[in-house]
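A protein record pairs a chain with a discrete description of its three-dimensional fold. The following entry can be read in just this way:
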Amino acid sequence: MGSINKETINKVVLAYSGGLDTSVILKWLEEVYQCEVVTFTADIGQGEEVEPAREKAKQMGIKEIYIENLQEEFVRDYVFPMFRSNAIYEGEYLLGTSIARPLISKRLVEIAAETGANAISHGATGKGNDQVRFELGAYALNPDINIIAPWREWELNSREKLLSYAEKHQIPVEMKRGKKSPYSMDANLLHISYEGGILEDPWAEPEDDMWRWSVSPEEAPNESLIIKLTYKKGDIVAIDDEPLTPAQVLTKLNQLGNQHGVGRVDIVENRYVGMKSRGCYETPGGTIMLKAHRAIESITIDREVCHLKDELMPKYATLVYNGYWFSPERVMMQTMIDESQKTVNGDVNVKLYKGNVQVVGRRSDTDSLFDEDVATFEDDDGAYDQKDAEGFIKLNALRLKINKIKQK
């Protein structure tokens, strides 16, 4: 796992988007490592066509080209399990970039095995979290894999140098007309992120035209929208009584959330590599899912189970953020979380209005622990004897009273 002996690399699987960076990396790998390159392009709902990557890879002489739609697997096996835990990092971030990385790592390693490659490569920089996530995931699945991270090796550390290299090696680069976005963006079915540009000053407000997915809350409709979400074992299986697959659920919630300005956040987060980073995110569907999931849990899981989940959640979120999806501790926690979700069945009504998600109803015909006879402020027919509370309070007050007496 130390420095790689270039002569031992026979074939590399490259996570390839077809953009400038990964096109340069493709040629650079062939030149520096003298090896064959396999390209892998994943459609995880980033909203851009992935097929053009096939043509670009062909133009560059690549024989083995993998292009895959992984949207259903992404939501079913990664997003949904994470949302069963109610994971949120540092109180704000719904882990949209973090949760996409283990799936890409998994496919890189699998394709390497299928094609006889002994290395994988990615375009993540040496300053960010993604290099850690990609590589921890890959090593967890194949301890013997070699990983090439060009941004940690080469001197092509500016857009000008990349363009110059592309020109020198006749790499086809699509020069988009019009103004180039000043932001570094990453998108998938769960979110879109923005970094760089004026966002590097944490005091500077994001420009209105930065946001790509959602209308601003100020411009959102003046009429609220109520939607019904149906849960089975902690996952949404239908919206307004229409059965949907996991990817369809998230797609629909994104669409509805975006119309109502839901899911924008602007945060400074603590990266695993040690620096603070300011980022803006749009996570419309995820914002709705988190709120609604807590609502259905509130009536279907036991108090102590609920509180234990809340205690574990920050640890779970940190594991996902730092790239430990395939770690034994995350798998162990997932088993416990999934066990708690067996009774998380029922419906939640949420109201969307000008950036807000408000729960306005929750019910479970089969698993509700909410007992109206016990909870009522009216005569409860002896379901709860209020006199019992006196002894309960005195026993719990005993240590507080002793503590005060000792202070005196």
About this structure: The chain has a mean pLDDT of 94.
